[in-house]
Design a protein that fits this description.
Elements lengths: L5 E6 L2 E6 L10 H16 L5 E5 L4 E3 L4 H4 L4 H6 L4 H9 L4 E5 L2 E3 L1 H8 L2 E5 L3 E3 L13 H9 L1 H10 L3 E2 H7 L4 E3 L4 H13 L3 H13 L5 H15 L3 H11 L10
Parallel strand pairs: 2-3, 3-5, 4-6, 5-7, 6-8, 7-10
Antiparallel strand pairs: 1-2, 8-9
Helix pairs in contact: 1-4, 6-7, 10-11
The chain binds 4-(N,N-dimethylamino)cinnamoyl-COA (DAK).
């Protein structure tokens, strides 16, 4: 049997997915993305999981879509078959927070996969870039849309038009990543962040994610209304009663994720 392209683990309420195509620097193909989506689907449905962490290895998070697989394709191959399409769309719809823990290369589709997550935690050796232009294509999984939203038009134009790679410090300064951590501590620090989020009430975590994402999809007035409705809705949860009672009683809350 061939080895899984994505390794699956759980640590408490955190599900960890590790891309496992090290010889190809975790290059993405239909099978890899299908395995990520299938595992994410399981975590999304599992009431005992609150947070999903996606990572690679020390050399590469993912160096992009598999160039060898794509090189001879024509328009109808990518369009008719919706190459990497359906599963990628599914990942965008996941309601639980996803954290990308990035060491090494996150290029092309790899950078887009990291940006599709809700937070990027970067190891000091991380390298980000959208080098598709050197291959005669452009980013196709959200790079031209998410990168300017993350770092602004000027920087996004620079990276996408010149194919320049940036290091973790630059990515941090540009606002692409949430934190930069020592490379050897990437998973330890990421798991700390993930466990912290997982210790919160899941409905409020999911509504916070949903509300923040709304900021990118709506006007300010609509976004504020969306936030207000979610805020009101959380007063219907047991966890809101527990969280506020615990504060008043000077104890830790015992959330039931309801
Ligand atoms: N695809 C396939 N194989 C790759 C790969 C990739 N993207 N990146 C690396 N590899 C393979 C190399 O071919 C090599 O394999 P062997 O020769 O050992 O068999 C192995 O990984 C190690 O790579 P290197 O020998 O090149 O390692 P170096 O340390 O020297 O260089 C590097 C590392 C990351 C700088 C270099 O490998 C590199 O430039 N890689 C390509 C990066 C890149 O151009 N990425 C963008 C790919 S295009 C779509 C939407 C989106 C996309 C596609 C479709 N649709 C809507 C349909 C996305 C497109 C992309 O991501």
């Amino acid at each position: 049997m061939s080895e899984s392209l994505v390794l699956i683990e759980t640590h408490g309420r955190v599900g960890v997915l590790t891309l496992n195509r090290p010889k190809a620097l975790n290059a993405l193909n239909n099978d890899v993305v299908a395995e990520i989506a299938a595992a994410a689907r399981q975590f999304e449905a599992d009431p005992d999981i609150s947070v999903i962490v996606l990572t690679g290895n020390e050399k590469a998070f993912a160096a992009g879509a598999d160039i060898g697989a794509m090189k001879d394709w024509g328009f109808s191959d990518v369009y008719n078959n919706d190459y990497l399409g359906g599963d990628w769309q599914y990942l965008r719809q996941i309601r639980k927070p996803m954290i990308a823990a990035v060491a090494g290369y996150a290029l092309g589709g790899g950078c887009e996969l990291a940006m599709l997550c809700d937070m990027i935690i970067a190891a000091e050796n991380a390298r980000f870039g959208q080098p598709e232009i050197k291959l005669g294509i452009i980013p196709g999984y959200g790079g031209t849309q998410r990168l300017p939203r993350a770092i602004g038009k000027a920087k996004a134009m620079d990276l996408i038009l010149t194919a320049r790679m940036i290091n973790a410090t630059e990515a941090d300064a540009m606002g692409l990543v949430s934190r930069v951590v020592p490379t050897e501590k990437l998973m330890e620090e990421t798991m700390d962040v993930a466990q912290t989020i997982a210790s919160m009430s899941l409905p409020s975590v999911m509504m916070a994610k949903e509300s923040i994402n709304r900021a990118y999809e709506s006007s300010l007035a609509e976004g504020l209304m969306f936030e207000r409705r979610n805020f009101h809705g959380l007063f219907a949860t047991e966890d809101q009663k527990e969280g506020m009672s615990a504060f008043v009683e000077k104890r830790q809350p015992d959330f039931k994720h309801k």
